[in-house]
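Co-fold these.
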Amino acid sequence: MKWFFRLTSYAVLILMFSVIVLIILPGVRYFFRPGFFTDFPRASMTEGGVFPSIFGSLILISLVFVIVIPVGLLGSIFIAEFSSKRLSVVLQSLAGTMNSIPSIVYGLFGLSFFCVNLGLRTSLISASLTLSTMAIPFFINSAVEFLRSVPKELREGVIALGANRFETTLMVIRSSKNGLLTTLMLTLGRAFSETAPILITGAVFYATKLPSKLTDPIMTLPTSIYAIIMNLGETARWMAQGMASMMTLVMIVIYSIVQILRRRTNG
Amino acid sequence: MDEVVFEIRDLCANYGTHRVLDHINVKIKSKKITAIMGPSGCGKSTFLRILNRLNDLIEDFSITGQILYKGQDIYKIKELNLYRRQVTMVFQRPNPFPMSIFDNVAYGLKIMGIKDKELVKQRVQEALKKAALWDEVKDKLKKPAVQLSGGQQQRLCIARALAIEPEVILLDEPTSALDPIATTKIERLLETLSEQYTVIIVTHSMGQALRISDELIFLYQGRLIEYGMTSDVVKAPNHEMTRQFLTGKIG
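Predicted complex below.
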């Protein structure tokens, strides 16, 4: 029986490893083409680099970061610390449901609400708001669990020293710091790799210049991969492979940080 | 005549419809160690938590009766954090905060708004000395408190309570998670502390109650069975139940 479990776990490991290797390896060599990280694409994406996509992804993630931290943190603190039992059940199931809605549906929502109703059009701001709408429930779902797992003794210990509600909450946040950071990293990782919501709310296939204001459209890594694969032939494929390797490497870095954070105690 | 710190009048406490304390009348004296004992579920922890008004946080918990702290009804106090600085509490499981040893002890002072660094330093040192922990930690004050042993952590929690200069220290089975050596240290410490502070300790260990307490309160199924000076109670328990508990037949 034991050999069976061992065999299956090895099989899974080999599968995962080969996926990673097969995605990363074919693209890595393009990193060394001159201008890959720094140039605009040229000649229908057959030459040049992917700089605008990198820039777009980074700026998008930064905006999501700026939106998710206050809203997500306040939301999860409210659910975990301040709301009544009944309300917290309702809010948590709401966040859970929102978390399982397919991302393309968020895209549609963003398209009709942010782009059309609010008149923000296909733009950086529409895309980051759409992505944040999706990322906030994801953040809240796991952050609430971390806040709740703070032992009762610690909470009461703070109160018994005469701390008020605010100071108690600060201590709870402090004690779940690593959990919250883990959650944040995972949320950003998800937002970084998500394609569908930005595809129809903020991304364009090709932009001649970098976005200079929030209402400009952007190029991002995942949407550029999609665009190349769907629209261009063999000659542009290398660029998609290069970006795919890059994204996978970024995700590996993010998950490594998450693993390190998980193993560290709050000190 | 000893000064009375707490006067409890006809206290009843309920979780929902379940009554956990039933018409308790008792006085707790200043600068003594009062041990509250009884078998599990007798309401002793609830009693202690009420004195810190910690059960306010629990939904569907209710009390009737009066608890007077130096003549003032504690359930009429508005500035609860000021009250809790006078009547503070140490818990069953050591609960160091996720910060350094120094910051743990300084925490109470920080939230009191004391900013004078020298004063904080001095009070932290005093508190650690009183809690008999100074010699063990003086060279590693910046280290995380979670690195200390269980017994050291509990003394740190006591030091943290002492730093805010309370009048009463409530302890809820402070040694039940500790080994005998650490327990002995804490018991010695409590005996010294009772010269300056009023100590109220919940314990289910009869041995501990007899070793350290001046006064004894014995609860059984939410009722006050026996109450008086420890030596008197041991010599001549008024109640059959107490006698059985003292001789190890129940509990």
